[in-house]
């Protein structure tokens, strides 16, 4: 055999060429230096020191060389693999140390903190605002009344003069809990606090002056201004000689107590089956006091430049409602209102988005203080 078999010369087997071995080593060392985390390094180890890494594959070629060429090539590849494995070990140590010191900082426990003081919870701003609203009326001599959130259909609708197929029933998209069977009343999640009017009239001696704060439910989607669960403050007065003028006076007193003095209120004609006449009640915007209306240079975010803020519905109690509750309509008359608590919180405290009220994030709640 005169001519040597060139393919067995380590310099001719590409992967064993000194330049190539050096290139594979340098590539591995660069990848190791660039590994920023232990997870990175794991991948680098697999790629550059694993069974299928270029250097491991090169190592396998050595066996195919002529015996005389093996020692040289073996030394070259072995040296490169050792360098890589040492670099891996060193980088591993550095990254582990970094991780350990990070864990020490991140998981530090301040043992000097008082362990026996738990942060004190606070009531939700909707609760405290509803209470403040009710308090204004309590200051005028009203009592606080209550009713259940799962309410008989009869109280929520029938007694309030919503006839069985009255279109007004669809004004309130209702969650039904139990449907009517035979002559029985069904059960609904109350769509308003007005059923408390009937409960108050049936359960109390006349005259009646009550407010009823509470949760109400409608099949609305949650968005910035709607929620399927919301709150109202119901008001009801039934006495002798009661007129709409008393209602306006009471609303004015409420607005003054809640938002400050000097703000006008207005009634806009509306419709509710249980009041006649009925109105929507608005108050003058306490931020711009109407100055933003028609003036594009002075937009008002509070009232959307309308000058007025809607507070709720109201009206003179429909005699049919009084009759359903067994009240002598020849002697007694009354009025009622239903004010939105969420709206009041939005306006009184500049809360822009309903989501903040329902998500239960204590960072929102605690900004209202720890009022208990
Ligand atoms: N219950 C009505 C509503 O939810 C508001 C209202 C209450 C209107 C009392 C008149 C009288 O829209």
Shape: elongated
Q: Provide the spatial order of strands within the biggest beta sheet.
A: 1-5-6-10-9-8-7
Task: Say what the CATH topology of the largest domain is.
Answer: BirA Bifunctional Protein, domain 2
User: So, the CATH homologous superfamily of the largest domain?
Assistant: Bira Bifunctional Protein, Domain 2
Small molecules held by this entry: phenylalanine
Gyration radius, rounded: 39 Å
Please write the string of helix (H) and strand (E) elements. Answer: HHHHHEEHEEHEEHEEEHEHHH
The major sheet is characterized as: 7 strands, mixed
Mean pLDDT across all amino acids:
91
Return residue spans where pLDDT drops below 50 for at least 5 consecutive residues. 1-5
Helix content: 25-40%
Provide the domain count: 2
- The number of strands is 10
Beta-strand level of the residues, as a percent range?
Answer: 15-25%
Task: Indicate the topology.
Elements lengths: L17 H17 L3 H12 L4 H8 L5 H40 L18 H14 L4 E2 L5 E3 H4 L19 E3 L8 E3 L5 H9 L4 E10 L11 E11 L4 H16 L5 E8 L2 E10 L23 E10 L1 H6 L8 E8 H9 L4 H5 L3 H5 L6
Parallel strand pairs: 1-5
Antiparallel strand pairs: 2-4, 3-4, 5-6, 6-10, 7-8, 8-9, 9-10
Helix pairs in contact: 1-2, 1-4, 2-4, 3-4, 5-8, 5-10
């Amino acid at each position: 055999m005169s001519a040597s078999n060139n393919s067995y010369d380590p310099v001719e087997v590409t992967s064993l060429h000194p330049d190539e071995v050096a290139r594979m080593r340098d590539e591995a060392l660069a990848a190791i230096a660039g590994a920023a985390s232990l997870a990175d390094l794991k991948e680098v180890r697999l790629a550059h020191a694993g069974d299928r890494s270029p250097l491991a594959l090169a190592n396998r070629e050595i066996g195919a060389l002529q015996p005389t060429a093996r020692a040289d090539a073996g030394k070259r590849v072995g040296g490169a693999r050792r360098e890589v494995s040492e670099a891996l070990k060193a980088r591993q140590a550095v990254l582990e140390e970094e991780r350990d010191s990070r864990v020490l900082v991140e998981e530090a426990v301040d043992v000097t903190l008082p362990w026996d003081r738990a942060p004190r919870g606070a009531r939700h701003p909707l609760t405290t605002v509803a209470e403040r609203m009710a308090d204004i009326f309590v200051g005028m001599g009203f009592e606080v009344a209550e009713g259940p959130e799962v309410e008989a259909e009869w109280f929520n609708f029938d007694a309030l003069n919503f006839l069985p197929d009255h279109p007004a029933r669809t004004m309130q998209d209702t969650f039904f809990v139990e449907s009517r069977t035979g002559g029985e009343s069904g059960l609904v999640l109350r769509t308003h606090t007005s059923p408390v009017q009937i409960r108050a009239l049936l359960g109390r001696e006349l005259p009646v002056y009550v407010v009823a704060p509470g949760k109400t439910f409608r099949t609305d989607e949650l968005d910035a201004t709607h929620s399927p669960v919301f709150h109202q403050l119901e008001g009801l007065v039934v006495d002798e000689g009661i007129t709409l003028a008393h209602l306006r006076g009471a609303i004015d007193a409420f607005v003054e107590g809640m938002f400050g003095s000097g703000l006008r209120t207005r009634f806009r004609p509306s419709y509710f089956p249980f009041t006649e006449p009925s109105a929507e009640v608005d108050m003058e915007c306490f931020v711009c006091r109407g100055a933003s209306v028609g003036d594009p240079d002075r937009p008002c975010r509070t009232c959307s430049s309308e000058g007025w803020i809607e507070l709720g519905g109201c009206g003179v109690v429909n005699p049919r409602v009084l009759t359903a509750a067994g009240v002598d309509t020849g002697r007694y008359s009354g009025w009622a209102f239903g004010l939105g608590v969420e709206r009041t919180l939005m306006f009184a405290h500049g809360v822009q988005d309903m989501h903040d009220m329902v998500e239960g994030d204590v960072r929102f709640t605690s900004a209202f203080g720890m009022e208990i």
